[in-house]
Design brief:
elongated; single chain; about 120 residues; about 15% strand
Length: about 120
């Protein structure tokens, strides 16, 4: 029941402060990069917010911080085929992406079918 096209988004869900990973996600990333589990775990995850594995993040001019695997120039995932379960399942069954609804509203208000709203986060 997807009502949106993620290619129209600057990566809002990739900027979430908590992208929880499973052991299987780390194994998938390790296989993708030809790394052992321990190496992938160390390189790609951190602990926090009650989670054993959280995705590491990097700086982003629009959202402040974003998933380490997000291409901040092209505004898309660089590990799409190996992406974590949370990303594969987003936004969930019978749900809509809140950013997409916001984006469509802004495009109507701006009368511009190409408008992309971003936060222009300042550090």
């Amino acid at each position: 029941m997807a009502h949106y096209n993620c290619l129209n988004c600057p990566g809002y869900c990739c900027s979430y402060p908590i992208i929880a990973l499973t052991k299987r996600d780390i194994e998938r990333l390790g296989k993708h990069f030809k790394l052992a589990f321990a190496t992938a775990k160390k390189r790609f995850t951190r602990e926090g917010h009650g989670h054993k594995y959280l995705m590491r993040r990097k700086g982003d001019k629009h959202f402040g911080r974003i998933c380490q695997f997000f291409d901040t120039k092209e505004r898309r995932c660089t590990i799409y085929k190996a992406r974590p379960a949370a990303c594969r399942d987003y936004p969930g069954n019978n749900c809509r992406c809140g950013y997409y609804d916001f984006l469509m509203h802004e495009r109507r208000v701006q009368d511009d079918d190409t408008f992309v709203a971003v936060t222009n986060h300042k550090d």
